[in-house]
Amino acid sequence: MKSLSDIARELGVSVTAVSYVYNGKWREKRIGADLARRIQERLTAEQATPNALGNQLRTGRTQTIGIILADLTKPFYLDLLCGLEQTLAAEGYLSLLCHSDMGRRESHYLGELLSRGVDGIIMAPHRPDAITTQLETLQEHRIPIVLVDNYLPDSNLDFIVTDNRWGAYQAVRHCLAQGCQRIVHIIASASPLAAIRDRYDGARQAATEAGLDGDGFQIVPSLAGLESYLAGMSARKDRTAIVAASFHDFGPGFQALARLKRRIPRDLVLVGFDSVPMETLGDLCAYVDEPIPTVRQRGLEMGAQAAKRLMTRLHGSTRGRCRRFIKPELLFATKS
After folding, report:
1. Among 86, 214, 242, 293, which is most buried by a count of CB atoms within 10 Å?
2. Which of 59-63, 84-88, 229-233 has the lowest mean pLDDT?
3. How do residues 136-183 score in pLDDT, each as one tens digit?
4. Which residues span the domain enclosing 279?
């Protein structure tokens, strides 16, 4: 495998000409078609690669992007990673992937990526209060950052996230269309994550518009409190819906619902964000008569758009903050 400088020397042309052909810029740089063809043929035959260290010394860039994601065991984050990596690779960038363990290692990885000289960072922040100073340091070093999955409302950082408010609003509207008179929202409404607070706000808005307040819209902040809540409502006859902020790690909730022995959706409506891990349904499978409605985040699209936004920053754009909300896919019927 030869370097671009090797190819240039053998063909008797400049390294710059070979680089333009390698990067597909020969037309705009007015390299002749015959010469470009000769260079491309040699590049293909020799499987030539640019000298990474030479490029770094010449441009001051490493052609690497740091990616920090919260939980790579979840399908959403794998979709997000796929969209990021494919788009970055097409632009000639290598991805350095960091698994933050739901934010526990965010601070560590931000420091590592800074020390390794990455050109930019794309991250899903899960412990924003713990990394504020580091994010400011990265900005001082002019390292562009794009946030995904969650965002920091009071910062000037670009972000591309799910429109969680709209998704939760539509989920509750679906429950109301099924005749539900009570909404039980499983969510940590005091969460420091803006994305979770948006889901809470969207669900509450839909319930309020339908006249459900007080007893009609209940918050259960954790799965630990779900079973006791369900036991207390077992004698009630009004139609109830369970709206989960996420079906990720909802296994204990499925088990609690199975012990209630109500049929879904005939006796109890269940809806939530993210795909349902079938292996966690357990005994609840015996009581589910229809596919469980879900609000699916568009991870692949989010990743691709975030990578493109970072490229825009790297190419010199200083235009204002990007605040982009991507509407999720509703895997259930809706009524206008």
Report:
1. 242
2. 229-233
3. 999 998 999 999 999 999 999 999 999 999 999 999 999 999 999 999
4. 164-296
Do 203 and 91 belong to one domain? no
The string of pLDDT tens digits covering residues 267-296 is: 899 999 999 988 889 899 999 999 999 999
Pairwise CA distance, residues 131 & 232, whole Å: 41
Span 21-46, mean pLDDT?
85
Indicate the SS3 state at residue 193.
Answer: coil
How far is 77 from 71, CA to CA, in rounded Å? 7
Tell me the angle at which helices 164-177 and 194-209 cross, rounded to the nearest 10 degrees.
30
Please state, in angstroms and rounded to a whole number, the distance separating the CA atoms of residues 171 and 83: 26
Tell me the pairing of strands 145-148 and 158-162: parallel
Q: What pLDDT is stored for residue 59 in this prediction?
A: 67
Look at the chain and report how many structural domains it folds into. Answer: 3
Residue 334 within any structural domain of the chain: no
Report the distance separating Cα 264 and Cα 289, nearest Å.
6
CB 67 within 8 A of CB 81: yes
- 108 & 172 share domain: no
